[in-house]
Fold each of these.
Amino acid sequence: MNRTAQPWPPVEVEPAVAHPKAPAPGEKLPVHYAECFGCGDELEGGLRMRSAMGEGQTVHAQFTVTEAHQGAPGLAHGGLLACAFDEALGSTVGNLLRRPAVTGRLETDFRRPVPVGSTLYITARLDGVAGRKIYVSADGRLDAEDGPVAVRARALFVMVGFEHFTTHGDAQALEKFAAARRQKPEKDWDINP
């Protein structure tokens, strides 16, 4: 079988320009929603990913695999790893561009097993923009920022209006989110940064 790598991005793109209010390199990124499975702190078994801005147009995220994240005994579930990359890539889009966007396509390339107890260091980067389409990619390394690459991913995100969330989201969850925002108006809240 001939597996020729497809060019990325697959279309001609403009360079992505970071929003003037994008976080500065080295800045730790806050949880964007407490009940987010990727970065939130309120869901048992959630990923609880932590991220920080990198140099250029990158975000560095960390995810430690627990027993709750297993697929095969002692190894991370592949779908859960894809979820971790979706979170890191989405955080990159949201924090750098400061526009709501949703995942349109996510490709993952699993290069080696990710054991329970290991930490995946993900570096995600903006690759370009074509109209409403945003192209991003990431590498995930085992147990160190310079460890072996375990997973690679690339994704297409699509910019949407805020009404995407109010039209398709759960009304009770949105009200709970709004109530939390009213209690702490000084906090920089985002459903999708």
Amino acid sequence: MTDSLLRKLRRHRLLPLIAAALMLIVALAIGGAVLLPGVLAAPAQPLPFEHSKHVAAGVQCIFCHPGVQTSAVAGLPSLNKCMGCHASVTPKDPKDQADVNKLISQWESRQPIRWVRVFEQPDFVQFNHRPHVAAGVACESCHGDVAKMGYAQPYNLNMGFCLNCHRKQAPEKVTKLISCETCHY
């Protein structure tokens, strides 16, 4: 800005207002990125699925994600799995029937559900759910409190997150758990 423009802005008391507005915009951007990253980054899904309602109905994580016990990946529920319940279950809230009707339409079209992954590890990371489940690590330890989430939200899963947990394990296990080869093989 030129000196004459700055003098005009000061004289009309606009400079402090502009500075305050810029600081507010920066603060909101930072606050949104820190406090709401999952909300901003959640991918759109082909069908509405609210985890909180299913958890409230007593559905356990492993019912829809049985792979956690037997394989590296948790897996995503198939249309058959969803219809196994919704062929006979009526939603508690009548407003949810429209979402169930979308599921039924999908079933009648004989097209599989193409869920969009919410949790994605980089190719250079080898993660296996099985040892974590066997060690008694609760799903919400890594995925957040899904029981309170409507739609699944990305969680801050990164190397630091994993290492912090691995370092808290029994001393005789820590050396192996923080070794690079444990996750990068």
Amino acid sequence: MNKQEKLEKLFEQCIEELKSINIDVQKNRIIEIKINTRSKKRYGCCKKISKDRFKIEISEWVMDLNEDIIKNTIMHELIHCMPRCNNHGEYFKNYAKVINEKLGYNISRTGNKERDFSISNLEFTEKPINFNYKIVCEDCNYNFFRQRVRRNFTRKYRCGKCGGRFNVFKIRGLISTNHRKIFLYIIEK
């Protein structure tokens, strides 16, 4: 059985499990599922093609993990096909809570690659990330790093902790992370 066939089989199992708790995700909806061979970081995504048509993509590397982790990812993306669940807001959380309680899943907003690789008895190796920008909140000094920043970032986004405006600093030189540890950076405004 190839990876796409395995994915389709697990997808059908998830649909049947949802039906068993009276959640008909396919009611008036067409949902396609396929493997994404390009994505290296995210587990999966759900794209709304039209009002009643969705395309779920599961990253190829996820298909090497345990079946319960793959099904957890599929369930996460299936929730995004439900009305008002295109984000990780209140409706998404309610569906996730019901599915977690009734079917024993562990659906959350994000995954933990290191944990999932460990559970699947696979070696976790992640390449260091080279960041180009440091983002700092003007009010609370909360900061984080990014490889890319949109041109209108400071106008469009506010700090999630305090609502303050962001300053974006271009990094000259090297900043690299390996398992979330930052080594060296030189900043210019």
Amino acid sequence: MSKTKGEDTEIRLDASNAAERRTLLWVLGINFTQVVVAGTVGIVAQSTGLLGAALDNLGDAVVYAVSLYAVGRTVIAKSRAATLSGILLITLAVGLLGEVLRRFFAGAEPLGLAMILTALANAATNLLCLRLLRAHRAHGVHFRASWIFTTNDMLANAGIVLSGALVMLFNSPLPDLLIGLAVAGMVLKGGGDILREAHQATRTAGPRQDEGSA
């Protein structure tokens, strides 16, 4: 199997790749913890925003698991993993939109204080993820995907804190529903961003790497 010089560089297993694996394992564990906490509180507190955050973290966790597969492989393999990540994000976004609509018509009484405290805790762990990912941001399309997802999480948590305060101020579920819609929009955008980057990486790699990765 012939390889280009660039492909040899991509698949070489060195200290850098070992560091990437450790980073992904850390952020994978952090995101699964976020899923459990945000999902549980979201159900108890009847918060669409927190359920959206849990779904977003679940998507991130799956993305990191796929990225573990991609580490040390060819550009084509990484691009395929990133494509799967983008499709997953878009699917979760559609599901979140459906949940927002269901709660709009069925009614809900979200607990603003629970939203704020949970979102702040989630934001703190996202800061840790960003710190871990920062050193690897330029190492491949799969890590750029991870960076985009974690950045989106930070924006979503800021919105949940604001909506929780508005829920308490106006005694209305509408701010929570609106942040649910906003999170869905960010998830859709993140999925689209990753699909575009994966497509561009595939085109740049060319057919020789595609044949070599088969």
